[in-house]
Amino acid sequence: IIRRVLCPSLTISQSLLREPNLAERLFPSTWKRILVPVDCSCASVGALKFAATLAQRNAGSINILHVPGGPADSVRPKSGFHDLARRSGQDRLAAWIASHGPLPVAHETIVRLGLPPSTAILLEARRLAADIIVLGLRPLRWPRRFCARRTADAILRLAECLVLSIPEAML
């Protein structure tokens, strides 16, 4: 259902519904620590711009997370190749961000290797104590929809913070 909506959608997980201060967390002005997972797609550009605007209005900051796929993911974390792959990923992520213009807010780039994307995103959200995850969604056709949906669905279901889904069709 989320993929067919043409406007931003705020998702609140079951665990958040039990929190006593939920009402306070729903105000956009409280969203200062923003996590933006990116896969360098058009949907990611939209999510990043939306998050930058939100952070600028709230005097917040954004953490831009990229979880690249490929051979580096299967390499043991202590190997030199793993460090090289992470630095290369950081450089590519910085170049991708710069290619879409300067961000008007403080931001940090994070590259995580060796974990499935949904796991890496959820762990980073917890580590950063993110107020919200801004997630770009793109329309996909079968069978890519099945694989990508599992990542997005896991984030929407299991996140310990709010998740704002930005559909690519909105851009």
Residue-averaged pLDDT: 84
DSSP summary, beta strand count: 6
Proportion of helical residues: 40-55%
Q: Termini distance?
A: 19 Å
Continuous helix count: 6
| Rg (C-alpha, Å) | 16 Å
User: Could you say which overall geometry the principal axes of the C-alpha atoms support?
Assistant: globular
Strand count, sense and barrel status of the largest sheet are:
6 strands, mixed
What oligomeric state do these chains adopt?
single chain
Secondary-structure class: alpha/beta
Strand order of the largest sheet: 1-6-5-2-3-4
| SSE pattern | EHHEHEHEHEHE
Q: What are the segments in which pLDDT stays under 50 over at least 5 consecutive residues? A: 70-75
Summarize the structure.
This protein is of the alpha/beta class and 171 residues long. The protein has helices at 14-17, 22-25, 42-58, 80-98, 117-128, 144-158; strands at 9-11, 33-38, 61-66, 107-111, 132-137, 162-167. The chain is 42% helix and 19% strand.
